[in-house]
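ugh finaly. both done.
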Amino acid sequence: MIIHEINTPVREVMMDITNIVDSEIEKCGVRDGSCIVFVPHTTAGITLNENADPDVKCDIMLSLREMIPDIRFKHVEGNSDAHIKASLIGSSVNLIIENGKLALGTWQGIFFCEFDGPRKRKIYIKIVKS
């Protein structure tokens, strides 16, 4: 398993990590297999989505903020909205590696979703050979 650390700059952000995952696949030399990307945090998530138009990231974050506003929840840390958003987005993606490359759609990218930053975060990457 590979552990990669990133620093998130603000409370809520979607950060493109496609290049990080691509680089790890290239380093390990696996031609065909799968890659699991997992986020071990309860206020962050991981997702696949459009990576061509940056407005899509803004729209996703805006929609999540409107669906789950930062209201007075019972959780004393004041970040329940971040926990809920992370649960909706999910904590992992399972990807196909074919011919040494991620088998992503034309416009797809892998995004780390921060909902309670800024923080130092970990991304676990597991590459499995077929």
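ok and the 2nd:
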Amino acid sequence: MDLPGLTTHEDVTRCTWRLSAPEYAHYHDHEWGVPVADDIQLFEKICLEGFQAGMAWITILRKRENFRRAFEGFDYQRIAHYTEEDIQRLLLDPGIVRNRAKIVSVINNARRACELVNETGSLAAWLWSFEPAADERPKVVDLACLTANPTSAASTRLSKALKKRGWSYVGPTTMYALMQAMGMVNDHLEGCICRPEIERRRQRFIRPRGAAGE
């Protein structure tokens, strides 16, 4: 009998949410929870998690390549120079979520990312300084469900620090989703075949170093 949140197929057990849509299979098995240290990849994850606010993640995942095209690979240095003309271009793009507030947020956050990198040298190092200690991570029960909307003390600290720097669409729930996606926490459920592999990757992962978070 399958445990709550887990499904076994052909003697392999994985988190049940993987079966919710075809696109989730690869995302669950090869991306979710894998540690990331590249500034542009992390900026993309922040932006996409922000676009998800109030929406299902599958909607964003299906449009991810369109987002990458529309936002020039999420190169925050380029996006920081976007103007009203770019906003109008993006609002006319049917391949993305055409929400003006969220589009403006990406541009604002790109400018804030440039400031942060100029100050600290690395977005990745700054973000990873918020990695929670083992004893403050939420117990993995059903957090791996992408609709669970969990938060944590660490995601709340990160949210407050980003908001203090002028970032938007970075609430505690959104930042916890970022922590899950970038490998800062491993929320594959106990029993999922991916959980031990993600933990091995986290143990081998060299955390970027730089200025500590606030």
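summary for the 2nd one i guess: The longest helix spans residues 100-120.
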